[in-house]
Amino acid sequence: MEDSEIVGLFWARSEAAIGETEKKYGAYCRYIALRILQNPEDADEAVADAYMRLWTTVPPERPRSLKAYLGVLCRNIALDALRKNAAGKRGGEAAALAGELNDIAAPLGGDLEDAAALREALNGFLASLPKRARVVFLRRYWYACTVPEIARDLRMGESAVGMSLSRSREKLRKYLEKEGFIVER
User: Fold this and answer.
1) End-to-end Cα separation, the chain, in angstroms
2) Is residue 111 very low, low, confident or very high in pLDDT (cuts 50, 70, 90)?
3) Secondary structure of the chain in HEC code, one letter for each residue
4) Burial 109-147 (b: 16+ CB within 10 A, else e)
5) How confident is the model at residue 110 (pLDDT cuts 50, 70, 90)?
6) Are 109 and 81 in contact (CB under 8 A)?
7) Which end of the chain is more exposed for a tag (fewer CB within 10 A), N or C?
């Protein structure tokens, strides 16, 4: 079924919308949630929560890309769960990723008046990166891959991956400043 048809089911408030979404994007959502949470039960809960949030936001939203919209919902829910699970804990990949993400998110503040401008700025930033740095950045911060996984898959040293991520985060801060976002240090 095409995305526009599935979105139409949501607009018609048909319960079949969730089933069709699960058939088409269930594995994609589970992959995202499991990469972030590293626990199948937590990942399944995040996916279920993403479907619920999709149900409550469509309508009024009419996403151009259901896959991207659902991916963002699922990822954000999984990241919220990760932060909740990592609160008060030390060490571990989840705490490391949560810390890195906080470093990236800090310049953005909690109340963005224009999410579309931010989305455009982030897309522009990603387009400005060399392909390898973009792949490393997305693998880490979108798909929550570990540094060793990225190094292995891209045939890079772990220190090279870490340096690439560090440089990209700094470039992101500078790019956002240039685009008019207030960046705290």
Assistant:
1) 47
2) very low
3) CCHHHHHHHHHCCCCHHHHHHHHHHHHHHHHHHHHHHCCHHHHHHHHHHHHHHHHHHCCCCCCCCHHHHHHHHHHHHHHHHHHHHHCCCCCHHHHHHHHHHHHHHHHHCCCCCCHHHHHHHHHHHHHHCCHHHHHHHHHHHCCCCCHHHHHHHHCCCHHHHHHHHHHHHHHHHHHHHHCCCCCCC
4) eeeeeeeeeeeebeeebbeebeeebbebbebbbeebbbb
5) very low
6) no
7) C
Q: What's the total number of domains in the chain?
A: 2
Q: Report pTM.
A: 0.72
Indicate whether 114 pLDDT > 70: no
- pLDDT reported for residue 28: 95
In this structure, the answer to whether residues 115 and 76 fall within a common structural domain is no
Query: Do 81 and 114 belong to one domain?
Result: no
Q: Percent of the chain scored above 90 by pLDDT? A: 57
Rounded to the nearest 10°, the torsion over CA 161, 166, 167, 170 is 160
Question: Any idea what the CATH number is for the domain that residue 109 is in?
Answer: 1.10.10.10
**Average pLDDT taken over every residue of the chain:** 86
pLDDT of 180 = 81
If we measure between CA atoms, which residue out of 102, 93, 104 comes closest to residue 39? 93
